[in-house]
């Protein structure tokens, strides 16, 4: 008669092996993140990420195995096998749950039954049955060891499958091609810079760049929104062409500047500072490195425990951190530059600090203000209204309007200091540097407070300067320039043919004294939900669909809702605050702008040009955008 195998207290064995297999899963996931996301990590950071992945997996699986410790005693080998399988089942089901209950990427179709809890329960039961079959089928130590080896091989294949090297260059690098540095300043007005006549705000880096190259005094953004503006700058096509009129809208297949430069042999890296430039929406195309990870350790936010925590926080705390300080972004960019000492490279750095809320770090927080921001005798903030939700906490209790304006100026100076760090790190003799803002900011003009939701001058007039000693002349270009001109200008200067589909114009002829643009266009579009809420009287912010045309000295604005129009003479009203009477349109430039805008708004407001942006965003995307002020409260 066969003796029964010895029975032991096996609870600790179940928990220990569950933690071990969870650690295996977590380490494999961390390795997949490292190789799949091409993170810019030092050796110590790679080790730290692998250890954190393993530790997180061990804690997750071990904690979930604690109830199994109460099961009746069983043979030690079987107990360990149960713990091993349970330790894998937990993270697998958790990963499926995150994918199941996370809203799909913007404007993509969800998979069948996505978000349905009953359907997910069925999937979890099927997985449980599969793991149960594995448990019942294992007999002896050899079977357990073989299963563990098979699991390790499966993990290795899973990690290897994440390797997705960028395509190799297919065309030759142009002779004498320079390095290219593009810095985009978010929410930054042109009138805050010394190069534009401001003698108060410190912007020495930009001013020095402009003094040694070309300054464009009439540069205009094509949209007062970060995503659409950047899409236009890097595609050379306006939002009326590519249809990206809102944040969160994926970019169409138009060739982007990074793709074209990489195809010609450029090493490419991008470092952005805000969620709205998420690489998953297409901004990462063409970049070998695209750093949009704002965690304390690059890659850690992609691990299972961090993703689960982030999902919980998004529901409990919609205004969680969605951006990072410019210094942190520049730190990563400089580390990338250190890894590319030779060859031609293209580096894009995006600085978000001037976007509200205005909270510059010391000493920039007191650089332009030393008074009492809560002085009860000061009532200058009383006229401020319709402030975006993401700004309200930062101005709570503030009575002095000058304090808020000083904080905005401090942010501009802070970003200029980060620009100085970048300029100090590059070889100025062989680097084409372009610095441009994506849009401006209204600070009370047109009764728009601390926001950018219109196509008036304060939201669209942006700083723009180029420098490449010996190739870019020292000059001031006063003819209009628009955001779509950035990509064709860079391509023209480095010697790469401009694709026929780019409607933007190279500014090289204007820099060299030839003809420049006569006009620059802009457009602002509103979400369908906001239009409906406005009609219902729930919101009254002026974010309806508008368009404008800027000439050398004038701007003409038209709105689709109500058919209103305004004309501004910028030669006497630089900020475009005072609407000029209709007879002013009789001036040659005014008449030309009025005629042009009336003819173009029909096309700009056409449904075909706005189909991509008319689709509603998901609930998760809505909360993220609302936290940054890009979605109204309803």
Strands across the major sheet, in which order? 5-4-6-1-7-10-2-11
- Beta-strand level of the residues, as a percent range? 5-15%
CATH class of the largest domain: Alpha Beta
Query: Helical proportion?
Result: 40-55%
| Proper CATH architecture of the largest domain | 3-Layer(aba) Sandwich
Instruction: Indicate how many domains the architecture comprises.
Output: 2
Radius of gyration: 28 Å
CATH superfamily of the largest domain: Alkaline Phosphatase, subunit A
User: Can you tell me the CATH topology of the largest domain?
Assistant: Alkaline Phosphatase, subunit A
Which structural category fits the helices and strands?
alpha/beta
- What is the helix tally? 20
Distance linking N and C termini: 77 Å
Major sheet = 8 strands, mixed
Mean pLDDT: 84
So what's the overall shape? Answer: elongated
- Structure summary, number of beta strands: 16
Spans of at least 5 consecutive residues with low confidence: 539-543
Task: Outline the secondary-structure elements.
Blueprint: H1 11-36, H2 43-65, H3 76-101, H4 117-137, H5 140-161, E1 179-185, H6 204-211, E2 214-216, E3 219-220, H7 226-235, H8 239-242, H9 257-263, E4 267-271, E5 289-291, H10 304-316, H11 326-338, E6 345-351, H12 389-395, H13 401-425, E7 431-437, E8 442-443, E9 449-451, H14 457-460, E10 464-467, E11 475-477, E12 481-482, H15 486-494, H16 508-511, E13 520-524, H17 528-535, E14 546-550, E15 554-559, E16 565-569, H18 588-604, H19 611-614, H20 619-627
Parallel strand pairs: 1-6, 1-7, 2-11, 3-12, 4-5, 4-6
Antiparallel strand pairs: 2-10, 7-10, 8-9, 13-14, 14-15, 15-16
């Amino acid at each position: 008669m066969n003796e029964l195998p010895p029975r032991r207290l096996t609870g600790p064995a179940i928990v220990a092996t569950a933690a071990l297999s969870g650690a295996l899963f977590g380490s494999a996931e961390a390795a997949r993140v490292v190789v799949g996301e091409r993170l810019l990590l030092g050796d110590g950071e790679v080790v730290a990420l692998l250890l954190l992945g393993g530790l997180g997996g061990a804690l997750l699986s071990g904690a979930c195995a604690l109830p199994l410790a109460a099961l009746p005693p069983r043979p030690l080998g079987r107990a360990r096998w149960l713990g091993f399988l349970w330790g894998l089942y937990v993270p697998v089901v958790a990963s499926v749950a995150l994918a199941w209950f996370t809203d799909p990427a913007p404007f993509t179709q969800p998979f069948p039954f996505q978000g349905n809890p009953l359907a997910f329960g069925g999937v979890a039961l099927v997985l449980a049955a599969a793991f149960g079959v594995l448990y019942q089928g294992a007999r002896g130590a050899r079977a357990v060891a073989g299963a563990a080896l098979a699991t390790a091989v499966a993990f290795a294949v899973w990690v290897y499958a994440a390797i997705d090297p960028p395509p190799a260059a297919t065309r030759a690098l142009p002779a004498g091609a320079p390095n290219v540095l593009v810095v985009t300043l978010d929410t930054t007005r042109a009138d805050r810079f010394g190069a534009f006549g401001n003698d108060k705000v410190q912007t020495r880096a930009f001013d020095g760049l402009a003094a040694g190259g070309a300054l464009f005094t009439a540069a205009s953004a094509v949209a007062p929104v970060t995503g659409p503006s950047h899409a236009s700058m890097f595609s050379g096509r306006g939002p009326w062409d590519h249809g990206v009129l809102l944040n969160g809208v994926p970019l169409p297949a138009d060739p982007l500047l990074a793709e074209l430069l990489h195809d010609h042999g450029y090493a490419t890296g991008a470092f952005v500072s805000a969620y709205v430039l998420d690489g998953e929406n297409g901004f990462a195309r063409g970049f070998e490195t695209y750093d949009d990870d704002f965690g304390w350790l690059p890659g850690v936010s992609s691990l299972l425990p961090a993703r689960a925590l982030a999902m919980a926080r998004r529901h409990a705390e919609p205004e969680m951190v969605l951006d990072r300080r410019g210094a942190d972004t520049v730190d990563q960019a400089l580390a990338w530059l250190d890894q590319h000492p030779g060859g031609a490279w293209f580096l894009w750095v995006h600085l978000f600090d001037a976007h509200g809320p205005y909270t510059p770090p010391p000493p920039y927080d007191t650089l332009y203000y030393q008074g009492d921001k809560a002085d009860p005798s000061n009532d200058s903030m009383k006229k401020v209204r319709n402030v975006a939700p993401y700004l309200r906490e930062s101005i709570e209790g503030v009575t002095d309007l000058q304090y808020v304006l000083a904080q905005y100026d401090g942010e501009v100076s802070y970003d200029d200091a980060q620009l100085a760090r970048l300029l100090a790190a590059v070889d100025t003799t062989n680097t084409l540097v372009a610095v441009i803002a994506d849009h401006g900011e209204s600070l009370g003009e047109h009764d728009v407070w601390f926001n950018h939701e219109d196509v008036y001058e304060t939201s669209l007039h942006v700083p723009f300067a180029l420098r490449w000693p010996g190739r870019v002349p020292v000059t001031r270009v006063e003819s209009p320039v628009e955001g779509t001109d950035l990509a064709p200008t860079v391509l023209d200067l480095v010697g790469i043919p401009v694709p026929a589909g780019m409607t933007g114009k190279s500014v090289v002829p204007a820099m060299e004294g030839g003809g420049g643009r006569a006009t620059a266009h802009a457009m602002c579009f509103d979400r369908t939900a906001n239009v409906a809420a406005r009609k219902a009287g729930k919101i009254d912010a002026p974010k309806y669909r508008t368009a404008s045309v800027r000439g050398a000295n004038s701007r003409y604005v038209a709105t689709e809702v109500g058919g209103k129009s305004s004309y501004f003479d910028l030669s006497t009203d630089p900020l475009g605050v005072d609407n000029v009477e209709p007879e002013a349109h009789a001036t040659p430039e005014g008449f030309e702008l009025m005629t042009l805008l009336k003819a173009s708004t029909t096309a700009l407001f056409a449904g075909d040009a706005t189909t991509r942006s008319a689709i509603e965003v998901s609930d998760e995307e809505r909360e993220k955008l609302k936290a940054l002020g890009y979605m109204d409260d309803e």
